[in-house]
Design brief:
There is one protein chain. This protein is α+β, with helices and mostly antiparallel strands. It has 5 helices and 5 strands. Bound molecules: zinc ion. Zinc ion (ZN) binds next to loops.
C-alpha cells in the first residue's frame, strides 16, 4: 500500500478511483457519477470523475454532492456497466431509466466502486456547475 496516494499516478493521470477502505454508515455515493467511497476519501481527494465539484476544497460540497442514502449493492465498474446495459433494455419500457442508457454514451468512468441505487438529485446549484463544465448530469428516476 502506498501511503495516502489515492488514485493519482506519478505522471499526473488518474488510473483508478479510490476503493472504499471501510464499509458501513460512512460510505457515500457521488450524486453525479455514483462513485462510492468513504466520506473521508471524498473530503480528502474529491471525486475522481467530478473534480469540478471541488469536494476536496470544501466539505460542504461533499455533504451536498454525495449521499449516504443508497440501498443497492456496491459494484466494480464492469458490473456497474453491465447493470446499466440491463437497464437499457428495461428503458425501452420504462423511460425513467433512460438516464442510464444516455449515460453509457458519454460514460468515461474511472475504474472504482459504484452503485446504481442513488435516488437523490444533485442540488440545482451543482447541476449548474456541471453545465458550466460541459458535463452532463442525468437525474435518477423519480419515486
Ligand atoms: Zn462523481
Amino acid at each position: 500500500m502506498r501511503g495516502g496516494g489515492g488514485g493519482m499516478m506519478d505522471d499526473g493521470g488518474v488510473e483508478h478511483a479510490q476503493i472504499p477502505n471501510s464499509f458501513g454508515h460512512e460510505l457515500r455515493a457521488c450524486l453525479r457519477c455514483r462513485l462510492v467511497k468513504t466520506y473521508d476519501q471524498f473530503r480528502e481527494n474529491g471525486c475522481e470523475n467530478c473534480p469540478f465539484l471541488d469536494m476536496d476544497k470544501d466539505r460542504d460540497n461533499v455533504v451536498s454532492c454525495t449521499t449516504a442514502n443508497f440501498t443497492g449493492p456496491v459494484l466494480p465498474l464492469s458490473e456497474f456497466i453491465a447493470q446499466i446495459l440491463a437497464c437499457r433494455i428495461i428503458s425501452l419500457m420504462d423511460p425513467n431509466r433512460s438516464w442510464a442508457a444516455r449515460w453509457l454514451r458519454i460514460g468515461r468512468f474511472i475504474p472504482g466502486c459504484y452503485t446504481l441505487a442513488v435516488s437523490e438529485e444533485l442540488p440545482e446549484e451543482y447541476q449548474g456547475m456541471c453545465q458550466d463544465n460541459n458535463v452532463q448530469y442525468f437525474p435518477p428516476k423519480r419515486p
